[in-house]
Write a structure and sequence with these properties.
heterodimer, A: mainly beta, four-stranded antiparallel β-sheet, about 0% helix, globular, B: mainly beta, five-stranded mixed β-sheet, about 45% strand
Chain lengths: ~120, ~110
């Protein structure tokens, strides 16, 4: 099975711009979660989508949003970029069955640099 | 979700077993212990999880104490490629997929 793919892998944007990142989960997986990783804050949960619905949300401002399509692919958008948004953005997919335990499979991430 | 405590860093010689401890003294009865690792500049990788019984898979073994207040991840024969940050996470299984990552343990394997 192909793994989780994220595009683009690297991105440079200017303060005030907006950005859209894309994630394709493992085939058959219906849940996609997004995380932000910075040296200062570590790995932080952004939000989770399951069957096109946001199921859970972390403590991030409304500038961070996402959506999921019927094929389970997901996008996240950050508007009005700030320098502090520079980070590695990771996407993870899981079957989303919610039974005994989740294993999440992470993609390689998108490295966003805001200048 | 219960809070976990891990050592900041550990060293291990190549070929030896790496034993990574995790304390989770406030764990609830329905919370699982998960282990992930992150090799530099890559996405985290799921290793193993368990509730109360010891678990083993092709990557590692997970030993959970009888009172479930601590656990140990064991890499039986560490290689240089096992150098990574290892995260111990405790959470309820059905609470969505959100993982709360702490600082983890940086394991350095040397030859």
């Amino acid at each position: 099975k192909a793994g989780v793919t994220q595009t683009p892998r690297y991105l440079i944007k200017t303060r005030g711009q907006q950005v859209t990142l894309s994630c394709s989960p493992i085939s058959g997986h219906r849940s996609v979660s997004w995380y932000q990783q910075t040296p200062g804050q570590g790995l932080q949960f952004l939000f989770e989508y399951f069957s096109e619905t946001q199921r859970n949300k972390g403590n991030f401002p409304g500038r961070f949003s996402g959506r999921q399509f019927s094929n389970s692919r997901s996008e996240m958008n950050v508007s009005t970029l700030e320098l502090g948004d520079s980070a590695l953005y990771l996407c993870a997919s899981s079957p989303g069955q919610g039974s005994l335990g989740y294993e999440q499979y992470f993609g390689p991430g998108t490295r966003l640099t805001v200048t | 979700d219960a809070k976990t405590t891990q050592p900041t860093s550990m060293d291990c010689a190549e070929g030896r077993a790496a034993n990574l401890p995790c304390n989770h003294s406030t764990i609830s009865g329905n919370e699982y212990v998960y282990w992930y690792r992150q090799i530099h500049s890559q996405g985290p990788q799921y290793i193993i999880h368990g509730l109360k019984n010891n678990e083993t898979n092709e990557m590692a073994s997970l030993i959970i104490t009888e009172d479930r207040k601590s656990s140990t991840l064991i890499l039986p024969h560490a290689t240089l490629r096992d150098t990574a940050v290892y995260y111990c996470i405790v959470r309820v299984a059905q609470a969505g997929t959100a993982l709360i990552f702490g600082k983890g343990t940086t394991l350095s394997v040397s030859s």
